[in-house]
């Protein structure tokens, strides 16, 4: 199996090393793993692309490249430049340092890479490691992802979990904030919503008198509804949320038609 991996934390991120290990186990001795990751951290860039400027790319090793762009740019670089002989069988994005559950999903560059992979017609999975007091102090806080990553990806490789619709599905995986031995299993979930969490801008004045805005997130351990991603993670489960890039609210189409007459 040929696998393309990326992330949004940057080419030197520890989570990318974890993903390399997972991908190599999935690819096997007869397969291969190609890495195209951002040269610098790109957290929170979502699905943005370098549409108005070129992306510089540098080869660091035989199958390892750094691109001065977003995770979505890295996917396009991998598909159209690094792997010209044909697309990979699978795209893996992560393992993100922090959860991409609930509203975080909408901002995540890790998810953005999976979106781009799906739009390009390649099976794509985003993987993230939830952090909390039970795993922050571990020797390897990615322990749950290390131990359960490959088996989770294999669980998603069944043919009936993928289709060839215009908006191909992709999968958002979050590993819970617990040691590997305390992971309870895998749960199929929907995207949750943290009621008391908002990203916000906070102003700060520099010593020179200039004004800057910092973006801050909210509490990450706020409960979400049962059956949703963050709720499953906080209960010790690996959440898998099926997603598509189609943002249409189909439940509202009929209501809108009636309202518009």
UniProtKB/TrEMBL annotation:
Catalysed reaction, written as an equation: a ribonucleoside 5'-phosphate + H2O = a ribonucleoside + phosphate
Metal-binding in keyword set: yes
Survival protein SurE-like phosphatase/nucleotidase domain ranges (all copies): 3-194
Cofactor dependency: a divalent metal cation
One GO cellular component term: cytoplasm
Name of the protein this chain belongs to: 5'-nucleotidase SurE
Binding site for a divalent metal cation: 8-9, 43, 96
InterPro entries on file: SurE, SurE-like_Pase/nucleotidase, SurE-like_sf
Function description: Nucleotidase that shows phosphatase activity on nucleoside 5'-monophosphates.
UniProt keyword annotations, A-Z: Cytoplasm, Hydrolase, Metal-binding, Nucleotide-binding
Record note on cofactor: Binds 1 divalent metal cation per subunit.
EC nos: 3.1.3.5
SUPFAM superfamilies named in the record: SurE-like
Molecular-function GO terms, alphabetical: 3'-nucleotidase activity; 5'-nucleotidase activity; exopolyphosphatase activity; metal ion binding; nucleotide binding
Coiled coil: none
Family: Belongs to the SurE nucleotidase family.
Organism of provenance: Yoonia sediminilitoris
Subcellular compartments: Cytoplasm
Domain of life: Bacteria
Keyword Cytoplasm: yes
């Amino acid at each position: 199996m040929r696998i393309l991996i990326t992330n949004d934390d940057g080419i030197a991120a520890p989570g990318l090393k974890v993903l390399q290990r997972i991908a190599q186990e999935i690819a096997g001795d007869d397969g291969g793993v190609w890495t195209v990751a951002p040269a610098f951290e790109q957290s929170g860039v979502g699905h943005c692309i370098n549409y108005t400027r070129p992306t510089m790319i540098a080869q660091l090793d035989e199958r390892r490249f750094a691109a001065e762009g977003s995770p979505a740019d890295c996917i396009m670089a991998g598909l159209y430049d690094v792997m010209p002989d044909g697309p990979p069988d699978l795209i893996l994005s992560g393992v993100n340092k922090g959860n991409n559950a609930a509203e975080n999903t909408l901002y995540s560059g890790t998810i953005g890479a999976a979106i781009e992979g799906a739009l390009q017609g390649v099976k794509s999975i985003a993987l993230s490691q939830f952090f909390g007091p039970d795993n922050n102090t571990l020797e390897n806080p990615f322990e749950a992802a290390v131990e359960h990553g490959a088996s989770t990806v294999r669980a998603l490789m069944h043919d009936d979990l993928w289709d060839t619709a215009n908006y191909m599905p992709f999968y958002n995986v979050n590993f819970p904030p617990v040691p590997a031995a305390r992971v309870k299993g895998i749960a199929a979930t929907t995207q949750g919503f943290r009621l008391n969490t908002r990203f916000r801008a906070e102003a700060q004045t520099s010593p020179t008198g200039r004004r800057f805005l910092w973006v801050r997130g909210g509490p990450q351990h706020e409960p979400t509804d049962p059956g949703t991603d963050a709720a499953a993670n906080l209960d010790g489960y690996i959440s898998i949320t099926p997603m598509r890039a189609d943002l249409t609210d189909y439940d509202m189409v009929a209501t809108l038609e009636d309202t518009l007459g």
